[in-house]
Structures
1.
Amino acid sequence: MGWVESIQKAINYMEEHLLDDLTIESISRQANASAFHFQRTFTILTDISVGEYVRRRRLTLAAQEISRTNCKIIDLAYKYGYDTPEAFSKAFRRQHGVSPSEARKYIGKLTFYERLVIQVILKGEIPMKYNIIERDSFQVIGIKREFSLVNGENLIGIPKLWDKVNSDGTDDQLGKLNNGQIKGLLGVCVDKRILEQNETMDYWIATEYDGQVPEGYSSLTIPASKWVIFEVHGPMPDAIQEVWKRIFSEWFPTSGYEHAGTFEMEVYTDDDASNPDYYSEIWIPVKYIEE
């Protein structure tokens, strides 16, 4: 199954089971991907989380049903996955701007979210610069924090961690300890669901280091991998977010590679990240797609 087909299969599965008790594990299984990597890919491509997509679609269908039937609000609340009518009404108003009872009286305008269809976008006017290397395992040192993957809490917590590291001097300390091949600070994502079957991930802010681990820091071994390294030119965070999106919407579908399922890294050089010419990198472990 191709990359685009596998993502679309997962979306179709969500649509077919919108009224069921969906789990990220059952959804990602349709795409032959880990829950972590499917969620990350989905969010990069759509700018919303899997959970938010399901909520939007359920509330879209609920609004349609309210408009064309006399079904009781309490029955609709339970049908579309809410424990109480109050919770349903609150979510409904947040999306549509009106309450369910107002919608039934045709008061206000409803917000409709169509089901997603993934398409490959082939663009050639802006080239993507990358190279592919193979490296043996190597050590990084730094700090790590555990983040919940539920409701996108990791997407909120990781930027706050970077703010802390940049303000308390940890970034400068790690920069001075850097003695490996990769120059700069690393952001490393470790999907713990693969290792421990739970709903969390570890995020590292680290640097490559060869030697005894200095006091106050932890170490992580990056496994031997074939890496595709994408160049990023431009200020943070917009430039790196744009390249992430292009990687999954343009590069992967036609590359002959798939994600290897191990750690991803972002590399930040020691320059002004707001500079229009700021240089950074995205490192993704890959393997050939099995026919």
Note: The CA atoms of residues 96 and 110 lie 5 Å apart.
2.
Amino acid sequence: MMGFSNPVYDGSFADPQIIAVGNDYYAFATNGPLGNVQTLTSRDLVSWEAVGDALPSLPEWTSPGRVWAPEVAVHAADRYVMYYTSRDTAADRQAVGVAVASTPTGPYVDKSMKPLISQADEGGSIDASPFQDSTGRRWLYWKNDGNAIDVDTWIYVSELSADGLTLVGPVHRLIKQDLPWEGNLVEAPYMVERDGKFHLFYSGNAFDEASYAVGHALCESPTGPCVKSGDPILSTSPDAAGPGHNMVLGDWFVYHAWNPAQVGTDPKGRTMWLSHLTWNGNTPIVQPPLRNNPTDP
């Protein structure tokens, strides 16, 4: 029988990101029952096993409890670089850190004395997402946590050094919240290059509301300019509410969502879902969240 059942992981697994290494997949998520950086492994994207905590020890500038939205860039067979969000205790705001491991599951180690990015005067910095373009240049996208202090939220980008550990060159602002559906914020950037164009996926509105959704913008380069498509490309369905914080793996959209009957209050929190992604020219077409998905990954 074809197809699979969502959620593919029915436990707390917010802000999911997946990497492929050989025949295996590894998924990382915001802190939860499995630790600071919850980690799963799979052979088919559908059946997942818990691995544990990829970031068991945190650097001195932070403390456990708010370790969010980890994303890993694969540099080599023995080098994996993780970008994650955690509390900058000195500034009392969220900030972005970077940690390195020699295996996909870690342990990732961050020996830094301060965060990689800490925009305390803009509310903090969260949701870092690495991207390597077709020329080999590496970039890092993130969001200033403006909604924490009632200021604008911007998606930022800067080029990364070859080793992925420092920002080099100018910092660019790409988009902010300016469409009705986005509410007070945009966040969770994820960049995809396709046929010479750059596609910025992002989430908008409140994460614990059914109005949370995923948007898209078409960009001329990794640093913009970017033009939004308008309405969300993935939003609440009868099967799942508040889908968001997506990433793209081949023809699949990976994201988290709530049980529609318990949005914002489900004891399990946000679970991991897959939807099929197709394209109409430069327009991404994403299946709505389907509990019984007819297509296999």
Note: The chain is about 0% helix and 50% strand.
3.
Amino acid sequence: MNYIVLDLEWNQSPNGKEDSVEHLPFEIIEIGAVMLDHQFRAAGEFHKLIKPQVYKKMHFKISEVTHMDMKKLCQEGQPFKAVMQEFLDWCGEGDFRFCTWGSMDLTELQRNMIYHKMEIPFPRPLLYYDIQKLYCLQYGDGKNKVSLDQAVQLQGMAEDRPFHRALDDAYYTGKILSVLDMEKYGVYVSVDYYGLPETKENEYRLFFPEYTKFVSREFNSREDIMKDKNITDMVCLKCRRMLRKKIRWFPYSQRFYFCLAVCPEHGYVKGKIRVKKSEDDRYYVIKTTKMAGEEDVELLTQRKEDGRRRRNAKH
């Protein structure tokens, strides 16, 4: 399997969200990618500038970070559709996996493709490696993320190229990938949420050593979500049996629900549902389940009580 290490630079409305085009908050202006083979050896590079069609004034922050010039983009950039087709051809039809630093690039890539009325050829679920996440799992606590330039410095790598340009950042991301223990951490794939499951039968279920992740199809309302047994059922991570709930699902803020279940053989299992809005302004959820200890039981009990108090205070 090859690795396509991808990085994008994008522009946005100089006036912020109020002048932002619906479903296109960021217009891609540069694509950079490095192809690595199965032994993480360089096998090719791709780099193209894209002529802006939506946001034709450079946002000052983008200009500060990338030092890109709108005049040069307009003179040397090519239309997005032509660049994107060339990029897809360069990726080839073989076995490869996208790798990015963070979770935004593939979402914005697909948003731009849809805006330009291009068909998205990627599989569902679209699995990829978030190298920032994997780096923090191997070298940190798995929660506090570091920037790409920090990771390069912490690894003592030569900084022989500038940062914050697409090809250069793809190059450095590939360098970080090459020092990761992929036999151990390669199981922690990420899943793209732009291309959601279309039916109940196609909902995504991912299994990891310490937790499971479930990504639902879209729903019209939050109420519909919590009526769906695929979402509310709790299953033991170890023996796969259906579990009795000790603490039923309860809301915590506008975005989360929590639950605690019990396996008679393996103990407590905690569940978290995160409610998100899709591109169509409908709802979907990401449910994670993990084994739990006594501290988790206390925390969830406290959260349920805190939520009850807040609701009572409003009345």
Note: Residues 189 and 220 are 29 Å apart (CA to CA).
